[in-house]
Design brief:
The complex is a heterodimer of chains A (1012) and B (416). Helices cover 77% and strands 3% of the residues of chain A. Chain A has helices at 38-50, 107-110, 115-121, 126-139, 143-149, 151-171, 181-199, 203-258, 268-303, 309-313, 315-355, 361-366, 371-414, 422-430, 434-460, 469-474, 480-523, 530-549, 555-581, 583-629, 638-686, 696-756, 767-815, 824-880, 889-914, 921-928, 936-973, 977-1011, and strands spanning 2-11, 14-20, 68-74, 80-86, 93-94. In chain A, strand 1 and strand 2 (14-20) form a beta hairpin. The two termini of chain A are 28 Å apart. By secondary structure, chain B is of the alpha/beta class. In chain B, strands 4-3-2-1-11-12 form a 6-stranded mixed β-sheet, with helices on one face. In chain B, strands 5-6-7-8-10-9 form a 6-stranded mixed β-sheet, with no helix packed on it. A 3-stranded parallel β-sheet of chain B has the order 13-14-15. The radius of gyration of chain B is 26 Å and the shape is elongated. Classes of the chains: A mainly alpha (1012), B alpha/beta (416).
Chain lengths: 1012, 416
């Protein structure tokens, strides 16, 4: 940004003054006499950029409310802006029409530059320069010393400022290209503010929503009314259209009924009775004729039937014999087989009797023992057999046990002479560390060698070389803290020298450029400077003073002085002329000269500083050398030596660790030696060969193997003794068991004779003999039962056959003796056939008789009914005035027609009522009076369209009402305004946090600037 | 005859909690709706305690809160009580008088809102209870407000519902001013007060009780929040105890870091303090403000690294619970006197002394004023009060700048 015009409209002594500043100029020098307004112009720029202060010194001519400053500014992007500033609290930036600017165009241009910064850095006035000089004087000769002593802290301050400024710019900066955090959160805050506004459901909004629901409801009610009205009209038209044909039909029916008025009024029920009576009379007459024919046919059929009454009387006996015949035939077929089985049973019994030594089977059955006696025999046989088996097994077991005992006693004798291994095992246990210790010792020695080798290699890589490992341990080395101090010293020196060299390069370039500018100005022609003018004026003043002093002197001297005064006056005038004519060049020359002198002074300061840095570096290097002098090492740079020292400490630490490891290995070796001596003594005691030179762990293994062998032998001997004792105990137990069984057997044998007696055996009968007898006696009852059962069955079968034959003979004798010539079975069959025929004829005759009885009863009933019907028809004739011979049917038909028409009329009226929406006939005729029925279809179509339209409107209204209600409910439920408020509060807190952080940093940065 | 009632006040439904700076939306949501959850807890407690009635003594809503959905939420909550057969008695407070949403709400029939035109009495004959109260008609009411309450109804247990700051000595503006002695003269058995957000049992003869608000909203409202559960038997209070209802908890934890040699020790003390605060919160979301105090040589470093320490403290908080959030870490430590003496003795150009003296320079303070104004201008108006603007605050900012600058310089890591 650069100023092209400065408008001093009403400011200090200025009124509508414009200061033009050339756009292509590199430098503007504003030259003016005292009180010309140079400082005022500078302050005007400040007030324009940063606003008027609460109190101003520039309202002595114009009222402070009318103060105005303006400017035309060219921005970096080439655009041009104009603005004006008034004094006030707000809206102080104005446009050309004195209207407040809505946005501050200066804010992004100025960034964090404040009024103070502006005046401190760009607004140097004579007063501020003088104050600065006085500050330097107050610092006296200690300034350089002070600067040097605080240079480190000042460097830190420099770095801090960059850090703080960077952090602050990330938080907030009006001119930042990237979006600082403050702006981001500010945007979020504004968004959340909008969201909160939108989320809040106000009472008015809710009331409006209620109104919308109500209006939608009212609209729907109105539409419903309209729908009802149109619906009623449509119903009327449709009803008219629907009922019109029905009314016409009713009219027609009424006309037809009028043609039947000559008939007397007869109840429909009476007519139905009459018609039924006539129909019934016709049916009765037909039935009577039919019955006469059936009676004739039945009489003929009965006369043809033949029934054997005597045979029917004995029909049951014939049937029984027929039924018995099957059983007889079955018995006749089974009889031979049964007889064979009877003979077989008898043979079995006879055979059994012979086995038991009895004469016949009858004698056998007489001697058969009872079932309890047989059970006792079974029990004692089983008991004796089991006891004898157990006794045999027990005796065999005694034999086995005796054999086993003898074998064990022999083994025990063979394995004698084994010693106790426990003391040896205990001594070996005390030496159990030997294998692990020996292994550990081997590994420790191996590791020690390897570590030592690595350490020596590591030592060899150190630069500078520190000598031997032992020498390194004794070496007096600086501490790491001392090295760090030296390191920082050298780093600081490097940094300062680097800074000074850069500054000197910059100053050299600047001095060269300024000298070039001055030379260029000198080459462009003569000009004067203010210093030159001051010198000329001083010269003229001095000559004036000399002239004053010489006024009383001789004229020649006065003339001389006067001439000199003339020369001085011309010189002043010429200088003034030159100054006025070449003001710009003079100003540039003065500025360049001033800046050149300033830069040269700065150059000298930095040159001196560089020399000082050299001295300080030398002193530091001497201190560095001295620091290492006791160690005998030629040090390299502190950075290298810091690393060197770290590695040396690592080596020493490792060396110490290796020494500790070696000491531990030595102790372990000594311990192993002691244990080995004990081990050799143990080997000698257990008789194991052990070479003196064998390693301890080898000796240990041998001793352990020998003791294991001793232990194994001892275990075996001990197990043999235990088995022998167990075998002896087992033999004694078995012998005791045999004794018990023998006693048990003796008791069984004592009961043996008593048990054998029922089955016919003596006391000396053996077990097998008793078992055989028992089996025979157990089989006897079954054989006996078979024999008796078969015998009974055969006798019964023979009796049945005999009885059947006798009964058939008696029957033939009774019914038809002629049948004696035929076999009895054949005769029975013939009789059975005859009986069946007689029975069928008898049944037919009974059926025909029953039918005749029924017909007689029916005829009687029909006759009674016929009389009743004829009576009814006589009444009908009388009522209708029809003669006794004239047919009744035509009259009945007319009456029937009238009846049906009347019912049709009633049905039509009912149908009319049902389709008339509750209207009666009269109302319908009244409603349709004067109605143009031809126009009805058109009216109906139109009304239907109207109904459809209203229904669509109702649907829309219902949707509208539903949506209004939904919107209202949603509104009532809220839009989480509380959440939005919370989010906004969060964003506000973040914004305040960012602002506070920015303030803290920018305040610290500004404090640093002020402190510097 | 024995019965129980619940006495609550200052619900301030949907009043936003002070900003926490929580980044996790789930944790933020738990804090955001804590107020409503506390109201739900009040209704749950009333039903669970089989209370005969509920008293709410004013400030149901925030005065400037315009979201009518908040009012409908409250109505729904009272509806739950009505369905449970529990009536509620409500006096409106100063906030409700200002509220645009409090007036036209469709309260259920069982909710009795005391009139603002005159003091009213409701009687529950089956319990022999008489309730007297009056709602605020405007934000401020005078002494005549309390004197308008009716005399005691003999033979009944008399309860006065009153939204008042009493004599104003509790840091509140004088709303319905009165003294404890004034209240005693009415002869009521229980004065159910509202307005003061800190629970306090003013008196037991008669009972004069502030239950406090039911949900803390900022670090100024710390500790358990809730209502009073009062049991009466034969006309006498036999038990009155606070019930905790808040759904989120605030804590203002001061940590003395005197003697701390390094940051590790400082963090250890912070952890110990947070552990006890976490235990007190009983599983609720907890927003804690940490203030480091005491004399420590770390002072300048702590100031410079305040934000890094804050992040460390939040990490410690998360070790205890996902819901333990450090709202802010404040440094209120100071350097030991020894250091200051050292500064005074410096005869060279001591940078620390230079910084200290510059920080007190009026010119620097003016610069700070401009900087504060610069950021304040960009800050939304309603937040500006939170930024330094008074002379004292600017002096404090200068001191912080001093400590931060020195802290940054000696720590050399650029702070955080």
């Amino acid at each position: 940004m650069r100023f092209e015009r400065l408008f001093l409209e009403r400011y200090g002594a200025f009124t509508d003054r414009v200061l033009e500043l050339r756009a292509d100029a590199q430098l503007h020098v504003v030259l003016g006499a005292n009180e010309a307004g140079k400082t005022s112009a500078l302050n005007a720029i400040g007030d324009l950029l940063f606003g008027f202060g609460h109190v101003t010194n520039y309202d002595f001519l114009h009222d402070k409310t009318t103060l105005r400053i303006g400017a035309q500014l060219r921005l970096a992007d080439g655009s041009l802006i104009s603005l004006r500033r008034r004094k006030g609290a707000k809206n102080t930036l104005l446009d050309a029409n004195d209207q407040p600017l809505t946005q501050d165009p200066l804010a992004p241009l100025l960034g964090s530059v404040t009024r103070d910064v502006f005046f401190n850095e760009f607004g140097l006035t004579a007063a501020t320069l003088r104050e600065g000089g006085r500050e330097l004087l107050r610092a006296d000769g200690r300034l350089a010393e002070t600067l040097a002593s605080t240079s480190a802290q000042l460097s830190a301050l420099m770095r801090v400022r960059d850090t703080l400024t960077t952090q602050a710019d990330l938080l907030f900066s009006p001119k930042a290209k990237t979006k600082p955090e403050f702006n981001v959160i500010h945007g979020q805050y504004k968004d959340l503010e909008s969201r909160l506004r939108e989320a809040i459901v106000t009472a008015d909004a809710l009331a409006a929503a209620d109104r919308a629901v109500k209006e939608a409801q009212e609209q729907r009610v109105a539409l419903n009314g309209e729908h009802d009205r149109i619906g009623r009209e449509l119903a009327r038209c449709e009803r008219s259209q629907r009922t019109r044909p029905k009314l016409l039909r009713i009219d027609s029916l009424r006309e037809e009924l009028a043609s039947l008025v000559d008939l007397p009024m007869v109840e429909a029920e009476s007519l139905a009775v009459w018609r039924d009576a006539q129909d019934e009379m016709t049916r009765i007459e037909a039935d009577l004729a039919q019955m006469g024919q059936e009676e004739a046919e039945a009489a003929a059929e009965i006369s043809e039937l033949s029934v054997n009454e005597p045979l029917l009387e004995i029909g049951d006996r014939i049937a029984n014999l027929r039924e018995t015949l099957g059983a007889v035939r079955e018995a006749e077929r089974d009889l031979p087989k049964r007889r064979g089985e009877l003979f077989a049973a008898q043979d079995n019994l006879t055979k059994l009797a012979r086995q038991l030594g009895v004469e016949t089977h009858e004698a056998l059955l007489a001697r058969q023992p009872s079932e309890p006696a047989l059970a006792l025999v079974r029990e004692i046989i089983e008991k004796r057999r089991a006891t004898e088996d157990r006794l045999a097994l027990a005796r065999a077991a005694i034999e086995d046990a005796g054999e086993k005992l003898r074998g064990l006693e022999q083994d025990v004798v063979d394995s004698g002479g084994v010693g106790d291994s426990a003391p040896y095992a205990e001594r070996l246990e005390a030496l159990s560390d030997i294998p692990a210790d020996a292994d550990r010792l081997r590994r420790a020695l191996s590791d020690h060698e390897a570590a030592l080798q690595r350490l020596v290699e590591q030592l060899g890589r150190l630069d500078p070389p520190p000598g031997s490992l032992d020498g390194l341990a004794r070496m007096v080395l600086p501490t790491s803290r001392e090295i760090d101090v030296a390191k920082r010293t050298f780093e600081l020196l490097d940094e300062e020298e680097k800074g000074a060299a850069a500054e000197l390069r910059t100053l050299n370039a600047e001095i060269a450029r300024l000298e070039e500018d001055i030379a260029e100005l000198a080459r462009s022609g003569a000009f004067a400077t203010r210093e030159r003018l001051l010198e000329a004026r001083d010269q003229r003043e001095r000559i004036y003073l000399g002239l004053g002093a010489a006024l009383d002197a001789d004229p020649t001297q006065r003339r001389t002085i006067f001439d000199a005064l003339s020369v001085a006056n011309r010189d002043v005038d010429n200088t003034t002329d030159l100054l006025l004519s070449g003001a710009e060049r003079a100003a540039r020359f003065e500025d360049a000269s001033g800046r050149l002198a300033k830069e040269k002074r700065r150059y000298e300061i930095f040159v001196a500083a560089r020399s000082e840095y050299g001295l300080r570096r030398k002193a530091a290097e001497q201190r560095w050398e001295a620091l290492w002098s006791h160690s005998g090492v030629s040090p390299k740079t502190p950075v290298v030596m810091a690393d060197w020292l770290v590695r040396v400490h690592e080596i020493l630490a490792k060396k110490e660790e290796i020494a500790k490891t070696a000491a531990a290995a030595d102790a372990l070796s000594r311990k192993l030696g002691e244990l080995r001596a004990d081990l050799l003594r143990l080997c000698a005691d257990i008789g194991t060969d052990a070479a003196e030179s064998s390693p301890a762990d080898v000796l240990f293994k041998r001793a352990r193997a020998a003791i294991a062998q001793i232990q194994e032998r001892a275990a075996k001997a001990s197990a043999g003794i235990a088995l022998r004792d167990e075998a002896r105990r087992e033999l004694a137990r078995l012998e005791a068991n045999v004794g018990k069984i023998e006693v048990e057997l003796l008791r069984t044998l004592e009961s043996w004779p008593h048990a054998m007696r029922p089955i016919g055996l003596t006391a000396d009968a053996g077990l097998a003999q008793a078992k055989a007898a028992l089996d025979i006696w157990q089989a006897a009852p079954l054989q006996r039962s078979n024999f008796e059962r078969e015998k009974d069955r055969i006798e019964k079968m023979e009796a049945n056959i005999s009885a059947f034959e006798s009964a058939v003979g008696t029957l033939i004798e009774t019914v038809d003796p002629d049948l004696h010539r035929k076999a009895r079975r054949e005769a029975l069959d013939i009789l059975s056939e005859r009986l069946s025929d007689s029975r069928r004829a008898d049944e037919q005759r009974k059926t025909l008789s029953a039918a005749a009885q029924k017909r007689a009863a029916k005829r009687e009933a029909l006759a009674t009914r016929l009389a009743g019907v004829q009576n009814i028809l006589a009444q009908a004739r009388a009522a209708l005035g029809v003669g006794s011979t004239a047919p009744l049917a035509p009259t009945f038909d007319r009456l029937q027609l009238r009846q049906e028409m009347f019912e049709t009329l009633i049905q039509a009226q009912r149908d009319l009522t049902e389709s008339a929406d509750g209207f009666d006939e009269a109302a319908l005729r009244s409603e349709q009076a004067g109605l143009d029925h031809d126009a009805l279809p058109g009216d109906i179509e139109r009304l239907r369209i109207d109904v459809k339209r209203v229904l669509a409107d109702i649907e829309i209204a219902a949707t509208k009402r539903h949506e209004a209600a939904k919107a209202r409910d949603a509104l009532a439920a809220g839009h989480d305004a509380a959440g939005a408020a919370h989010d906004k509060a969060e964003a506000g807190a973040q914004l305040v946090g960012v602002a506070s952080r920015w303030l803290a940093r920018v305040a610290a940065a500004r404090l640093r600037t002020y402190a510097i | 005859m024995q019965f129980t009632f619940i006495h609550a006040a200052d619900l301030h439904i949907d009043s936003p909690l002070a900003g926490l700076g929580v980044k996790d939306p789930a944790v933020a949501a738990r804090f955001a709706h804590a107020g409503r959850r506390a109201v739900e807890a009040l209704i749950d407690e009333t039903i669970a305690a089989k209370a005969s009635f509920l008293l709410i003594c004013g400030d149901i809503f925030d005065g400037d809160w315009r979201d009518v959905a908040t009012g409908l939420f409250f109505v729904r909550a009272l509806g739950r009580l009505e369905r449970a057969g529990i009536p509620s008695f409500i006096v409106k407070g100063n906030h409700d008088a200002e509220s645009q949403i409090a007036n036209k709400l469709p309260y259920p029939e069982s909710a009795r809102i005391f009139s603002s035109r005159a003091a009213q009495s409701h009687h529950i004959d089956e319990l022999r209870v008489s309730l007297h109260g009056r709602s605020f008609a405007s934000r401020l009411v005078g002494e005549e407000f309390v004197t308008s309450y009716p005399a005691r109804r003999e033979g009944y247990f008399n309860i006065g519902l009153l939204h008042t700051a009493l004599d104003g000595t509790r840091g509140h503006q004088s709303y319905a001013p009165c003294t404890v002695e004034d209240l005693r003269r009415f002869g009521y058995d229980y004065w159910a007060l509202g307005h003061v957000h800190a629970a306090e049992e003013i008196s037991r003869d008669p009972w004069i009780v502030y239950p406090g608000n039911i949900q803390g909203r900022s670090v100024r409202e710390t500790g358990p929040k809730g209502a009073m559960r009062v049991t009466v038997a034969y006309g006498r209070v036999i038990d009155a105890r606070p019930v905790t209802l808040d759904a989120a908890r605030w804590a203002d934890a001061h940590v003395d870091v005197s003697g701390c040699e390094d940051e590790a020790q400082t963090l250890a003390r912070i952890e110990a303090r947070l552990e006890s605060e976490h235990a007190l919160a009983e599983g609720r979301p907890l927003a804690a403000r940490l203030t480091l105090e005491g004399a420590t040589p770390l002072h300048a470093r702590l100031v410079a690294r305040r934000e890094a320490l804050e992040a460390d403290a939040r990490a410690i908080g998360f070790r205890f619970s996902d819901d333990l959030w450090i709202e802010q870490l404040k440094i209120r430590t100071h350097a030991p006197d020894l250091q200051r003496k050292h500064l005074d003795e410096a005869d060279a150009l001591d940078v620390e002394a230079l910084i200290a003296s510059t920080a007190e320079d009026p010119e620097f303070l003016r610069a700070l004023t401009e900087l504060a104004a610069q950021i304040s201008d960009k800050t939304p108006r309603e937040l500006r009060d939170a930024l330094p603007h008074s002379a004292e605050q600017l002096v404090a900012l200068a001191q912080e700048a001093r400590d931060r600058l020195y802290g940054e310089m000696i720590s050399g890591d650029g702070g955080a």
